[in-house]
Design goal:
Two copies of one chain form a homodimer.
Chain A lengths: L7 E6 L4 E7 L2 E8 L11 H9 L9 E4 L14 E2 L11 E2 L9 E3 L3 E3 L4 E3 L2 H11 L5 E5 L4 E7 L2 E8 L1 H11 L13 H13 L4 H14 L4 H19 L1 H4 L4 E5 L1 H12 L6 E4 H10 L3 H6 L1
Parallel strand pairs in A: 1-4, 4-7, 5-8, 10-13, 13-14
Antiparallel strand pairs in A: 1-2, 2-3, 6-7, 8-9, 10-11, 11-12
Chain lengths: ~300, ~300
């Protein structure tokens, strides 16, 4: 196996996971990951965790560009939020992490905050910056579905406003930790149940609280299948999000940035409302965004 | 310590807890409880768990009257749901649990189900029956706040319809297991934050999804206190429940049956909407309901 000599190293360091890419002149040379997310590490645990993962790539002392919760107050070192409206990333605002290994030079991208309504993001700003490089001149809305979905209004290259929904986390909690878990084992899916639930939630979002327990009750007394229950829970939560996010998507150009399966669900729900959303791969966006942080790495693209 | 010789024994056996009362001619003689709820027991574990708790009371072979999840399909033995509209309890519908100890005679009360919209209850039907004994001739609505809050429409001594909300479980999941937990440590409370959140959720229930993450964001960038965050989460969830349950309480006579602190929060939220709810103690209702299950125990009241 030949040695990997990256030009630079991209790092996406979230609460639960750490992912790193060795980047060459033509793109990704190698990819590694671990579960040493920010949530598991104390302040002095970040450098060792990173070295365990990318140590073999450091011979040529390539710069490391990182985004995500690694820059939070509980992270490696705080990269203070920038305030919208502003560009998603500013290479002059990166913070250098304190290191002991002389081969390491780690720049951390700051997140964004919005004063009113109060909101924050860390990591998504890098995907947004990358999406703007992949779609130059884009004006419209990005939707980044995930644990904490973000809707982001973009104009003239700046993030104008954004809003976060806990939809993904709610789905995980309700389907895995609540009484509803009994009726939705497995990974099955039911498109019709999803579609009906999205429509129901969009037209009567105030009924969400009343709809949830009926998933359990129908499982007990009306034979609701686990796959229909799962899809309906997802549809109810996504539909409720779409109802509250309507000012973001109604009559707008919308692009989804996220994992394949989840983005498909959002695209399907939006299509039913007459919105044909474009799609971008989240990792492509993260890498393009991190690359934009340095004149050197940007040139290497 | 003198021996306890109950006339009968009341048992409230839920998913998480088992509680039993030694009942004499004048009321409660003694109370015991354990954490051997239905959720922790296999089918043959129920009789031993009960004997561990009430064995010393069985000298006179008093009848045991039980309600709750003990009668579910995963319980000691299934007491099939009765279908509303119907009286909350019917002593002819109790199911006798299979026992090996000759001193034991255990009757289990069935729960209620509603076909459309699908809904179920187990345990609350007994509280409702008890409430109707404590307030003879009651016509109106009962609200039973809790892990799974129930709104129940009562007319002419029957349960006409009911609806379940997962408000209490959502509060527990969001405040203890979601990203919001970071901003709401402790038991503090803030009445003004609760009131404002109830009002906000009642007027814009479709915005719940958008309001939740702002609790985290305001904690990070606007100094929201843990007690205000806690109270606001509670207010948002209770307000959303009240918005969806409006057909139950608007212009109706409402009585709350539940734990002191939680009932107070619901009473406060309803009062802001012009509804002066009456209050009943949940245990009083459970005991009165169980007593109504037997002509003998009923006479002993």
């Amino acid at each position: 196996m030949s040695e990997i000599v990256p030009v630079w190293i991209a790092v996406d360091w979230g609460t639960s996971n750490l992912r790193a890419w060795a980047m060459g002149p033509e793109g990704v040379l190698a990819k590694v990951s671990s579960d040493e997310g920010m949530g598991k590490l104390s302040r002095d645990g970040f450098e060792p965790a990173l070295l365990r993962l990318i140590g073999p790539w450091l011979g040529g002392r390539p710069p490391v560009l990182a985004c995500g919760m690694v820059g939070s107050r509980q992270g490696w070192c705080e990269a203070p939020y920038r305030t919208v409206p502003c560009t998603p990333l500013d290479r002059n605002a990166v913070v250098m992490a304190p290191v002991t290994d002389a081969r390491l030079k780690v720049a951390i991208a700051p997140g964004l905050k919005q004063t009113s309504p109060a909101d924050v993001m860390r990591g998504e700003e890098t995907q947004i910056a990358g999406a703007l490089r992949l779609m130059p001149g884009y004006d419209g809305v990005f939707c980044l579905p995930g644990t904490h979905s973000k809707w982001v209004h973009i104009s003239a290259g700046e993030v104008v406003s954004f809003q976060t929904f806990m939809t993904g986390e709610m789905f995980a909690l309700l389907s895995e930790a609540s009484v509803l878990r009994h009726g939705m084992q497995g990974e099955g899916w039911d498109d019709a149940a999803f579609d009906a639930a999205v429509s129901d939630a969009l037209s009567k979002p105030e009924k969400l609280g009343a709809r949830l327990f009926s998933l359990r009750a129908e499982g007990l007394i009306a034979g609701l299948s686990p796959q229909a229950a799962r899809a309906r829970l997802s549809g109810l939560l996504i539909g409720t999000e779409l109802a509250a996010a309507k000012p973001y998507w109604l009559g707008q150009r919308v692009t989804l940035i996220g994992a394949e399966k989840l983005s498909s669900a959002y695209a399907r729900a939006l299509a039913a409302q007459g919105i044909e959303a474009q799609r971008l791969n989240a990792t492509d966006c993260t890498l393009a965004g991190l690359a934009s942080l340095s004149p050197m790495t940007e040139a290497a693209r």
